[in-house]
């Protein structure tokens, strides 16, 4: 057994059954043992800090919990790199040489990874989005449920009918979850715009269009639509003063312009009434459903119909009949 495992040569390289293991000296073995213990200690500390953060902020998507996770993640990575360099490269000359080789290798083989990691820091520094925000990133629409160094994880949502033609194909005709969890590389922020529904103001403008026949009561139909919008959408009076000031600053709108309003548009077949209103970024499909039910009920009560495309037959081609044998 002693002859099978021994240290040979002036550097005392570990030798197994006569085969020398390059680099396995007593010094390197000690460093390897210290490294394993350091990594295990770091993993235990990381889990403990995550447990404390979950205990303090709860397991919910919020700004405090989000930043706590990012600080823990970045701190763990920094300690891991610093500890590994301190254990293995106590000679500054060797450290500089190793760093040069590593940097060159990463630059050649991991360009996309480096770009993705750079995107991660830009997302944090630029406040592009946080966990819990509703965004469109890399063609994926949904809510951010996780943010990593390389990828962002999104709970995909469907698309409203006007957006159905946009890729990728979605079978849910509304802004509700599809059930698919999609991962998108962080480097997409350098190539494509990022649409954020909730970054600074958790409200968006929405519209509903309703065709009314020209022989109908347009003004009464407009009032019915306005009543439904005022009842089911976000009321301006309910918005906080801080939210209103932010809305005025960012969108340069006046408070009186935030109330629901109906716009008229003449078409070849009917009068199109479009109601524009402000509502919360989540639950839009439920709001439109409630408005549609109320509007349809009220229109039916006052005998106002919904216009639809119709075609009038104004003439028939001449038909010729040939009789054979007098029949």
User: Structural class of the secondary elements?
Assistant: alpha+beta
Q: Low-confidence parts lasting 5 or more residues at pLDDT below 50?
A: none
CATH fold annotation of the largest domain: Alpha-Beta Plaits
Radius of gyration: 33 Å
What share of the residues does DSSP label as strand, in percent? 15-25%
- In round numbers, the mean pLDDT is 78
**How many β-strand runs?**
11
Proportion of helical residues: 40-55%
Could you please describe the fold and organization of this structure?
The chain is an alpha+beta fold and 327 residues long. The chain has 3 domains: 5-89, no CATH class; 126-196, Roll (SH3 type barrels); 203-301, Alpha-Beta Plaits. It contains 7 helices and 11 strands. Strand 5 and strand 6 form a beta hairpin. Helix 1 (26-57) runs antiparallel to helix 2 (63-88).
């Amino acid at each position: 057994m002693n002859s099978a495992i021994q240290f040979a040569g002036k550097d005392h390289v570990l030798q197994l059954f006569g085969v020398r293991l390059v680099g396995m000296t007593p010094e390197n073995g000690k460093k390897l043992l210290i490294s394993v213990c350091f990594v295990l200690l770091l993993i235990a500390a990381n889990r403990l800090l995550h447990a404390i953060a979950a205990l303090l902020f709860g397991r919910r998507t919020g700004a405090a919990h989000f930043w706590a996770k990012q600080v823990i993640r970045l701190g763990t990575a920094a300690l891991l790199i610093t500890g590994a360099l301190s254990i293995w490269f106590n000679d500054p000359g060797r450290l500089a040489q190793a760093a040069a080789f590593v940097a060159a290798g990463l630059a050649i083989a991991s360009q996309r990874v480096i770009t993705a990691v750079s995107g991660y820091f830009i997302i944090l520094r630029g406040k592009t989005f946080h966990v819990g925000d509703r965004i469109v990133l890399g063609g994926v629409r949904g809510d951010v449920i996780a943010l990593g160094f390389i990828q962002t994880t999104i709970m995909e949502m469907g698309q409203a009918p006007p957006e159905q033609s946009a890729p990728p194909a979605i079978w849910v005709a509304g802004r509700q979850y599809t059930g698919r969890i999609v991962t998108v590389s962080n480097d997409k922020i350098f190539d494509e715009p990022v649409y954020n529904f909730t970054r600074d103001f958790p409200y968006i403008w929405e519209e509903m269009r309703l065709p009314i026949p020209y022989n109908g009561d347009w003004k009464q139909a407009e009032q019915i639509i306005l009543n439904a919008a005022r009842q089911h959408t976000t009321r301006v009076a309910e918005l906080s003063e801080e939210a209103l000031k932010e809305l005025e600053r960012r969108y340069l709108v006046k408070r009186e312009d935030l109330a629901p309003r109906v716009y008229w548009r003449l078409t070849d077949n009917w009068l199109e009434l479009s109601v524009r209103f402000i509502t919360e970024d989540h639950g839009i499909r439920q709001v439109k459903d409630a408005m549609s039910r109320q509007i349809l009920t009220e229109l039916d009560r006052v005998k106002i119909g919904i216009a639809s495309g119709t075609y009038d037959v104004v003439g028939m081609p001449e038909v010729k009949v040939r009789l054979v044998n007098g029949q």
